[in-house]
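User: Show me a protein chain along with its predicted structure.
Assistant: Here is one chain, sequence first, then structure tokens.
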Amino acid sequence: SGHAGQARAVAVSPDGRRLASAGADRTVRVWDPDTGRQVRELAFPPSAALCVAFSPDGRRLAAGGEDGTVLVWAADDGSLVHALR
């Protein structure tokens, strides 16, 4: 549970401590895979999120949407770092 609609993609952080899911509900959600609890919800307002990935060092989380937008957040606090259009 969590997304209102389809979860389109998932990614696991390099250390395995977080899982991120991209949804048709215009959100990216971050989860604790050990407890199944949602840690953070990130808005993806341009369109439905289609893909999600952690950077190799685990410090960034990126998602791409149907409209070609890519948003990049700091994985530790969810602050937006880049918006690529």
